[in-house]
Specification:
Elements lengths: L1 E2 L8 E2 L5 H19 L17 H16 L5 H11 L45 H13 L17 H7 L6 H8 L14 H10 L48 H12 L2 H14 L6 H6 L21 H14 L23 H4 L4 E8 L8 E7 L2 E6 L3 E9 H5 L13 E12 L15 E6 L2 E6 L7 E5 L5 E5 L6 E6 L5 E6 L4 E5 L5 H9 L16 E3 L6 E7 L4 E6 L3 E6 L5 E6 L8 E4 L4 E6 L4 E6 L4 E6 L4 E6 L5 E6 L3 E6 L5 E6 L5 E6 L5 E5 L3 E7 L1 H6 L14
Antiparallel strand pairs: 1-2, 3-30, 4-5, 5-6, 6-7, 8-9, 9-10, 10-11, 12-13, 13-14, 14-15, 16-17, 17-18, 18-19, 20-21, 21-22, 22-23, 24-25, 25-26, 26-27, 28-29, 29-30
Helix pairs in contact: 2-3, 5-6
InterPro entries: BEACH_dom, BEACH_dom_sf, BEACH_Domain, NBCH_WD40, PH-BEACH_dom, WD40/YVTN_repeat-like_dom_sf, WD40_repeat_dom_sf, WD40_rpt
Pfam families: Beach, NBCH_WD40
Keywords: Repeat, WD repeat
């Protein structure tokens, strides 16, 4: 049984002696948790009730995920992770580790062309059937095999086993220690270790005992390809010591580039159009029975679930022998689908214009943000279908964000004849001044504000107050509903986690404080706020910080917090960026600006990329969450704003020069430049629909959205661009 948490807590993995015990324990745990959260007589919130995922529930979840994948609401990677989890694969179990496919077949070219099918592996065949000459040997064995107790099989080895996982991950702990333990306390011979991507793929095509697939790390973790701990892995037969994994020429010697291109390949149109074949083999109807025979997808019988009834086996010696064989030689995943898996739906360029056609986005409208003109828009926040604005002079307003979907009052699938529409609508809250005073030494800007949502209630957090507090403002009426004073100097920046559960504040006192949002029983909270009865005791944020993080020598200027990554990143005027864990508040590492200049802004993605900006030398520096420098660039003029797209693949920068510059979060290369309206841009937001909303010095709101006609004329350039090319 595996227990998953909705924050950064790692899953708990428990092993029981029987199926009966695990079902009883799981059902009891779920029942106790739901009863504690929703006592008898209380209204149950569907989203908060948990269930024990047995086979029936797993199939329902799989069907739902399949439909979302078909509609392109989730990526290929996300879908495969869901299927792996539902099929019993876990990072906590080396004998049943998640399985991913080899997707590329070309590991020798300088550049890859995703428009050529020969670039890709044939996903309709198991690895053992990819090479015709070797497959003939497997087929002969299958046809001529004769044993009264053992059914015929094509492949004696498996595509996923503990040995395969440790083979790939031997350069990373704890897998290094586990690998050595498996090999009797020492590394295997250097020539048998994982030394090259190309040789690993060629070996899986030619070696009669190697039909291995990949693991998820090949699509997100460059660190496993480097011998960063300088292990002595031995000397190869050619006299060369074994160190880092040798990469294909198209990776240009960079593990990050290899992972990026491999992930691009996984999400490419070829793989999207053919992945259902591979799913049929690994998780679907071609896993067993006659379809498996016809697909040449038959493995040794004990690798299949239910092939041996271990619980009722009396011969303990035979039982232990079979258990040992199952643990070490591979297990076929639980079969999820019994019928043919459908193909993925066609791409929807208009839903992801930044990826498919960034040039299709243009300036489509300009409106005044407030009644009084010439008041700079210093903050733009987005919550659901509302735009939260703060103008110079602490003028707050909330407006509607209008889209084709909200106009039609339902889902718009981008397939109809209508032209797409995006724009700023009427006021939800008319412009009003917030009744507070900022400290004299504070420069009012984006870093002082953040939005958060608790259940259906929306709030704005405002820092920079003269009395060293930060305030929570209700966005239903603009009132200050909570004021928190714990820092010993002015609170200079704030960040909220993407799930809205955690708030981080940075102060001139050089500390960072971590706060938890108060989430009472949803039903109670809703009843009170519906009647506008928020009392002083109804805290939006807990009054005491969970952690006080130290380490900086000067004022904190920028922050990022993520429950997903269990990380707090803080930038300071002292030129350092410090990483702490969110859950424990433990120091992890520091990154310093190359020239020691103070940091002005930072952005970070859920994929673990951090970009730092210093307005002193206008430099941008990208690092991995593990501290490795990836790229640097110089901004075009002084930046007032840096914002990420929802997908995390792009960063939009804007400032006094009046244009929006779109950069790749892989390389910091410029993807596109959007000219403004000749006005300095003071604030920026990117919507879910990949539109830009820019606030200007004179109080205007500029909307940059997709021109439907342009995207229809375009030819989806990303599919023809070499993936190793810039931007």
């Amino acid at each position: 049984m595996e227990i998953f948490f909705d924050d950064s807590n790692a899953p708990i993995f428990l092993n029981f002696s029987s199926q009966k015990d695990v079902k009883r324990a799981g059902s009891l745990l779920v029942s106790l948790r739901n009863d504690a959260l929703f006592p008898k007589g209380s209204i149950k919130d569907k989203n908060s009730v948990i269930s024990f995922v047995d086979r029936r529930v797993a199939l329902e979840i799989a069907e739902n995920a399949k439909e979302r994948w078909k509609r392109r609401e989730i990526s290929n990677f996300e879908y495969l992770m869901i299927l792996n989890t539902l099929a019993g694969r876990s990072y906590n179990d080396l004998t049943q580790y998640p399985i991913f496919p080899w997707v590329l077949a070309d590991y020798a070219s300088e550049n890859l062309d995703f428009n050529k099918s020969s670039t890709f592996r044939d996903l309709s065949k198991p690895v053992g059937a990819l090479d015709e000459k070797r497959f003939k040997d497997f087929e002969d064995r299958y046809l001529n095999f004769c044993d009264p107790d053992i059914p015929s099989f094509y492949y004696g080895s498996h595509y996923s086993s503990m040995g395969i996982v440790l083979h790939y991950l031997l350069r990373l702990e704890p897998f290094t220690t586990l690998h050595r333990s498996l090999q009797g306390g020492k590394f295997d011979h250097a020539d048998r270790l994982f030394q090259s991507i190309d040789s690993a793929y060629r070996n899986s095509l030619s070696n009669s005992s190697d039909v291995k697939e990949l693991i998820p790390e090949f699509f997100y973790m460059p660190e496993f390809l480097e011998n960063s701990n300088s292990y002595h892995l031995g000397i190869k037969q050619d006299g060369e010591p074994l160190g880092d994994v040798a990469l294909p020429p198209w990776a240009k010697g960079s593990p990050e580039e290899f992972i990026h291109i491999n992930r691009e390949a996984l999400e490419s149109e070829y793989v999207s159009s053919n992945l259902h074949h591979w799913i049929d083999l690994i998780f679907g109807y071609k896993q067993r029975g006659q379809p498996a025979v016809e697909a040449a997808n038959i493995f040794y019988y004990v690798t299949y679930e239910g092939a041996v009834d271990l619980e009722n086996m009396d011969d303990m010696i035979q039982k232990y022998a079979i258990e040992d064989q199952i643990a070490n030689f591979g297990q076929t995943p639980i079969q999820i689908f019994r019928v043919k898996h459908p193909r993925r739906g066609p791409p929807i360029p208009i839903a992801h214009p930044l990826y498919f056609a960034p040039q299709s986005i243009t300036l489509t409208s300009s409106v005044s943000s407030t009644i009084s003109h010439m008041s700079a828009v210093l903050f733009i926040g987005l919550l659901d279908n509302t735009i939260i604005l703060m103008n110079e002079g602490l003028i707050l307003s909330v407006k509607l964000w209008l889209t084709t979907r909200t106009q039609l009052g339902g889902n718009f699938t981008f397939s109809g004849p209508q032209e797409n529409f995006f724009g700023v609508g009427s006021d939800v809250i008319s412009p009003r001044k917030i009744g507070t005073f900022l400290a004299e030494n504070v420069k009012f800007g984006r870093q002082l504000l953040a939005t958060m949502q608790i259940n259906s209630d929306k709030y704005l957090i405002l820092c920079g107050n003269w009395e060293n507090s930060f305030q929570i403002i209700s966005l239903s009426d603009g009132r200050i509903v909570q004021s928190i004073r714990q820092h010993k100097d002015v609170v200079g920046c704030v960040a909220v986690s993407s799930d809205g559960n955690v708030v981080a504040t940075g102060s001139y006192d050089t500390t960072v404080m971590i706060w938890h949002a108060f989430r009472g029983r949803p039903s109670e909270k809703k009843m009170r706020t519906a009647n506008f009865e928020i009392s002083e005791n109804d805290h939006i944020i807990m009054e005491r910080p969970v952690h006080i993080l130290c380490g900086h020598d000067d004022i904190i200027t920028c922050l990022f917090v993520s429950t997903e990554l269990d990380i707090v990143v803080s930038g300071s005027k002292d030129g350092t960026c410090i990483f702490h864990t969110l859950r424990e508040g433990r120091y992890v590492r520091s990154i310093r600006h190359p020239s020691g200049f103070g940091l002005s802004k930072l952005v970070a993605t859920r994929h673990g990329r951090v970009v730092l900006y210093s307005e002193i030398d206008l430099s941008l520096h990208m690092h991995s969450i593990n501290g490795k420098h990836i790229a640097s660039a110089t901004s075009i003029g002084r930046l007032n704003c840096m914002e990420l797209s929802c997908c995390g693949e792009f960063m939009a920068c804007a400032g006094e020069h009046g244009q929006i510059v779109l950069r790749s979060m892989h390389s910091l290369d410029i993807v596109w430049k959007y000219p403004g309206a000749g006005k300095g841009i003071t604030s920026l937001a990117m919507t879910r629909e990949e539109c830009f909303i820019a606030g200007t010095k004179d109080g205007s709101l500029l909307v940059f959205s997709v021109e439907t006609a342009l995207i229809r004329r375009g030819s989806m350039p990303q599919t023809s661009v070499k993936p190793s090319g810039a931007g």
